[in-house]
Design goal:
- The structure is a single chain.
- By secondary structure, this protein is mostly helical.
- The protein has one domain (5-156).
- The protein contains five helices and no strands.
- The longest helix is centred in the middle third of the chain and has 40 residues, at 40-79.
- The two termini are 12 Å apart.
Length: 166
């Protein structure tokens, strides 16, 4: 299935993306997540007392996003090997994967912005915290679509030696 050392490196790049992503949340102190039920003052106090951890954690998450590109590119190149597969599926997976990588960057930028000036008015910190968590959790459609397109491609590979063995 993997023809070159570069392909293997792209697989490990996907693993690195996941490791850096979750490590970033742990380092930031976001495991367990900040409860949406806590007060405005407590949210502000969290960022004032953990601003360095949040900054370092978000740097890890930003790094995780860059590792997604080779992994998504590898999936795209493997899907192209499936004979008779519609280009809509191949390019749809690529676009969904690219959009998915944005959701590694956007929440990290928002949380970094909060930690950059932890002395902001508590209401702004609270609002940005909500925005950060919503942008981290809510955008499930691109990865869902990417997974569905990959599944469709794999199930439509009727060759004697499928690209993705079942």
């Amino acid at each position: 299935m993997l023809s070159t050392q570069t392909d293997r490196l792209a697989v490990w790049s996907g693993v690195a993306a996941i490791v850096f992503f979750f490590a970033g949340f742990v380092v930031a102190g976001f495991v367990p997540p900040i409860s949406p039920a806590i007060s405005v003052a407590n949210v502000a106090q969290f960022y004032q007392s953990h601003f360095l951890n949040v900054r370092i954690g978000m740097l890890l998450i930003l790094r995780s996003g860059m590792f997604m590109a080779p992994f998504v590119g590898l999936i795209w190149s493997l899907l192209r090997r499936i004979t008779g597969l519609s280009s809509c599926i191949i390019y749809g997976q690529l676009v969904a994967g690219a959009a998915n990588s944005l959701f590694f960057f956007v929440p990290a930028i928002i949380f970094s912005s909060i930690a950059y000036r932890p002395e902001r008015p508590p209401e702004l910190t609270h609002m940005m915290n909500d925005f950060g968590w919503i942008s981290a959790i809510l955008p499930w459609p691109p990865p869902f679509m990417q997974s569905m397109l990959i599944a469709i491609a794999v199930l439509n590979d009727k060759s004697s030696s499928p690209v993705f063995p079942r």
